[in-house]
């Protein structure tokens, strides 16, 4: 009778080898020990439990399938990574502009914005039918297109824009963010918020009899919006004469040129170079005429110029530096599984994982994620409107007007002289500091129109609007009045000693010192134009526009 050996008594369990395959070590012919390996006898082989063989085969099969799945996942990960890289490249091919729609109330800004979204495929027919029915129920059939941009019930009931509407569309070469600014004079602060984020302005003017005149006359929003847009850095302007299909106009060439002839002198006086930076064109926003495609001769036989999409696509704005210090004024914040801030990146680039500062409260934060045009991205450059999720700060510790800043970035400009350098070789060292927080600054102001019986002098109080900051301020000192009529080539030896003025009148240009109650984050206009230009308003009226010309010494909130 044969004795069965226990499993643990076996010298070595036999290795499981696939049919037609051999172990790597068996290929080594020069191994002197190869001949000495004992082969298991047939009797021992017979003693191996067949179930053990099956179990090992199952284990090996599982390992092979796991390796296969891992390989597939690795390939998929590489493919996804490559696809993301391609998407980033495709996305980066298109430049990005922010376009603000401005103009008098009821000129058709929201309708124009809605029509653009419809023509560019951002809104489907079912949504349009829903808006048509809703507008008809309110006995406002022509308002349905504006409902695309005016989303809240208050705006739809009143028929006026209150908040700055925001939407996105693309042309062949450019991605656009539409900023639909309110036209009513009660909501000018909201319009300022929208225009401060814009690169290009679309000034919408109604051609209807009486409506253009109302917006253009003294106190009309057409004039104020143009002046504010220029002050807030909107360097390019497209003037669209809307409602050309109106029965009082009927695509009249005379009416179009009448409006153009009145607007050109005013645009020049506001600081625009009409030949280079301004373009006029007729449209019908309600019907989409001359917007995406050029005008048909059967509709308007005298216009042979471009359509609105062509004009927007051809506009050139100064390039931005993606490698500069990070500056992102915060316009809003909210909680969504963390603290999320919204704003436009004015300088530099923000990437996931970046360590930044929220100023002026000096909170150190880390970037968790970035949302741009409703899409999650790993990196966003200057000019982009983004939502950034931050770690390290609570939502209640952030206010509109705070600035997201790089930790080591451009602070105040320090001029360094070396004994062996000429005037041409003076070096400017850019101090590695985040944006400063100040309570006063020197500014150059142009007085537009003071309220009745008001005197602009030390002690004058107003509301300061600078990037996303709205803060009460006081003029504490007039430093110098600038004579704008004086010849630039006047002999400097005959220059009279500067005398501080006691007060100035409408139209004057003056250098003054402005003081605010709370610390604010601003920059000199020469360093960061968008963070250094501002307006002064009082009692719902813009009284002055200006730029920051000097800040207190680095690290100090006020002048000595």
From TrEMBL:
Keywords (A to Z) from UniProt: GTP-binding, Methylation, Nucleotide-binding
PROSITE patterns per record: G_TR_1 (PS00301), G_TR_2 (PS51722)
Residue ranges the record marks as coiled coil: none
Annotated Acidic residues bias: 20-33
GO MF entries: GTP binding; GTPase activity
Domain of life: Eukaryota
Residues annotated as domain Tr-type G: 94-320
Gene3D superfamilies associated with the record: P-loop containing nucleotide triphosphate hydrolases, Translation factors
Location of region: Disordered: 1-41
InterPro entries in the cross-refs: EFTu-like_2, G_TR_CS, GTP-eEF1A_C, P-loop_NTPase, T_Tr_GTP-bd_dom, TRAFAC_GTPase_members, Transl_B-barrel_sf, Transl_elong_EF1A/Init_IF2_C
Record function comment: This protein promotes the GTP-dependent binding of aminoacyl-tRNA to the A-site of ribosomes during protein biosynthesis.
PANTHER family: TRANSLATION FACTOR
Membership in a protein family: Belongs to the TRAFAC class translation factor GTPase superfamily. Classic translation factor GTPase family. EF-Tu/EF-1A subfamily.
Protein name from the UniProt record: Tr-type G domain-containing protein
Organism lineage: Eukaryota, Viridiplantae, Streptophyta, Embryophyta, Tracheophyta
């Amino acid at each position: 009778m044969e004795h069965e050996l226990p499993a643990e008594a076996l010298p070595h369990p036999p290795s499981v080898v696939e049919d037609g395959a051999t172990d790597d070590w068996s290929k080594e012919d020069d191994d002197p020990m190869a001949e000495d390996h004992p082969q298991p006898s047939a009797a021992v082989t017979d003693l191996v439990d067949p179930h053990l063989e099956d179990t090992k085969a199952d284990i090996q099969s599982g390992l092979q399938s796991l390796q296969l799945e891992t390989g597939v996942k690795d390939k998929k990960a590489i493919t996804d990574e490559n696809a993301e890289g391609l998407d980033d490249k495709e996305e980066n091919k298109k430049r990005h502009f922010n376009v603000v729609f401005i103009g008098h109330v009821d000129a058709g800004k929201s309708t124009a914005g809605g029509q653009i979204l419809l023509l560019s495929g951002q809104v489907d027919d079912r949504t349009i039918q829903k808006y048509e029915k809703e507008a008809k129920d309110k006995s406002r059939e022509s308002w349905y297109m504006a409902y695309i941009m005016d989303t809240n019930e208050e705006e739809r009931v009143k028929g006026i824009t209150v908040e700055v509407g925001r939407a996105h569309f693309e042309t062949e070469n450019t991605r656009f963010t539409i900023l639909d600014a309110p036209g009513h004079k009660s909501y000018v602060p909201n319009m300022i918020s929208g225009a401060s984020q814009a690169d290009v302005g679309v000034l919408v003017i109604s051609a209807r009899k009486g409506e253009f005149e109302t917006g253009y006359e003294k106190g009309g929003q057409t004039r104020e919006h143009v002046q504010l847009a220029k002050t807030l850095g909107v360097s390019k302007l497209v003037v669209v004469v809307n409602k050309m299909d109106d029965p009082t106009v009927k695509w009249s060439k005379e009416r179009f040129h009448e409006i153009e002839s009145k607007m050109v002198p005013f645009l020049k006086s506001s600081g625009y170079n009409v030949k280079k930076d301004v373009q006029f064109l007729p449209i019908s926003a309600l019907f989409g005429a001359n917007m995406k495609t050029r005008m048909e001769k059967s509709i308007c036989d005298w216009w042979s110029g471009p359509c609105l999409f062509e004009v927007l696509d051809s506009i050139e704005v100064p390039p931005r530096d993606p490698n500069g210090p990070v500056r992102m004024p915060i316009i809003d914040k909210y909680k969504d599984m963390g603290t999320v801030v919204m704003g436009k990146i004015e300088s530099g680039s923000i990437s996931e994982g970046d360590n930044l500062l929220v100023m002026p409260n000096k909170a150190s934060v880390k970037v968790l994620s970035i949302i741009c045009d409703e899409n999650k991205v790993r990196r966003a450059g200057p000019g982009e409107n983004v939502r950034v999720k931050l770690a390290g700060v609570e939502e209640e510790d952030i206010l509109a007007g705070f600035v997201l800043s790089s930790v080591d970035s451009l602070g105040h400009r320090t001029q360094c002289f070396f004994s062996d350098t000429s005037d041409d070789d003076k070096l400017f060292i850019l101090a590695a500091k985040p944006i400063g927080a100040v309570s006063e600054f020197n500014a150059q102001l142009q007085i537009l129109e003071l309220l009745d019986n008001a005197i602009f002098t030390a002690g004058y109080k107003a509301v300061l609007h600078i990037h996303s900051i709205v803060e009460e301020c006081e003029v504490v000192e007039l430093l110098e009045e600038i004579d704008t009529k004086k010849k630039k080539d006047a002999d400097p030896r005959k220059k009279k000693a500067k005398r501080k003025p006691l007060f100035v009148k409408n139209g004057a240009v003056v250098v003054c010192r402005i003081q605010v109650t709370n610390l604010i984050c601003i920059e000199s206009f020469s360093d960061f134009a968008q963070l250094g230009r501002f307006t002064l308003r009082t009692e719902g009226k813009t009284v002055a526009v200006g730029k920051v010309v000097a800040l207190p010494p680095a690290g100090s909130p006020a002048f000595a």
